[in-house]
């Protein structure tokens, strides 16, 4: 026959107060850790949105520039109504337009210099952007060939967010078209 103490132990069930406290502390630690990730995720999402928007703006503008004939006019009007210069064949191998700097072995537009007329524009406010972001778009062209006829045009175009409360790097695209 079982003793009284053994019978009492068999009948006991449930959690002790210490077990409940330990489980609560472990659960709260996990919840606090996850809650701290929310602002980081929101910030990363906003940065990705701005970078994606800058990329789309630069790609659209670059596509319009690459469609222009090498021997054609040196300016054109883009889809946004901006007058855009593309460089002349009279200065082969010379960077025309916005100043270019090399960072990490890659050319990019120097945004610390003043904008060059006809080689830059500011986008209108994006109505779908809840923050009303605007972008500064600048480019440079390097022509190759002789003074009379261009053989190729290299375009370096950058777009960066204007304003905001943090520094944002410009997004740069580099492309070439040849005859």
What labels describe this entry?
179 residues, alpha+beta, two-stranded antiparallel ribbon, 2 helices, 33% helix, rod-shaped
Please characterize this protein's 3D structure.
The chain has one domain (11-178). It is an alpha+beta fold and 179 residues long. The model has no long low-confidence stretch (mean pLDDT 86). It contains two helices and nine strands. The longest helix has 51 residues, at 17-67.
State the shape: rod-shaped
Number of strands: 9
Q: Assembly state here?
A: single chain
Which residues form runs of ≥5 with pLDDT under 50? none
Order of helices and strands: HHEEEEEEEEE
In helices, the fraction of residues equals 25-40%
Strand content: 25-35%
Average pLDDT works out at 86
Q: What is the overall number of helices? A: 2
Task: Give Rg in angstroms.
Answer: 30 Å
Q: Report, as a whole number of angstroms, the end-to-end distance.
A: 103 Å
- How many domains, as an integer? 1
Biggest sheet descriptor: 5 strands, antiparallel
Structural class: alpha+beta
Structure in a nutshell:
The protein is of the alpha+beta class and 179 residues long. It has helices spanning 4-11, 17-67, and strands spanning 75-77, 83-85, 95-97, 100-103, 106-109, 120-122, 135-145, 150-161, 171-178.
């Amino acid at each position: 026959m079982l003793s009284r103490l053994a019978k009492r132990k068999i009948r006991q069930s449930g959690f002790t107060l210490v077990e409940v406290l330990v489980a609560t502390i472990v659960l709260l630690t996990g919840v606090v850790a996850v809650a701290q990730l929310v602002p980081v995720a929101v910030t990363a999402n906003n940065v990705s949105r701005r970078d994606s928007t800058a990329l789309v703006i630069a790609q659209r503008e670059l596509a319009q520039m690459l469609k222009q004939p090498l021997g054609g006019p040196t300016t054109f009007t883009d889809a946004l109504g901006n007058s855009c210069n593309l460089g002349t064949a009279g200065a082969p191998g010379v960077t025309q337009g916005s100043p270019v700097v090399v960072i990490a072995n890659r050319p990019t537009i120097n945004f610390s210099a003043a904008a060059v007329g006809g080689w830059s524009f500011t986008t209108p406010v994006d109505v779908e952007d809840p923050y009303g972001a605007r972008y500064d778009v600048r480019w440079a062209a390097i022509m190759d060939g002789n003074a009379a006829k261009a053989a190729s045009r290299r375009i370096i175009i950058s777009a960066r967010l204007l304003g905001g409360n943090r520094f944002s790097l410009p997004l740069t695209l580099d492309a070439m078209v040849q005859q």
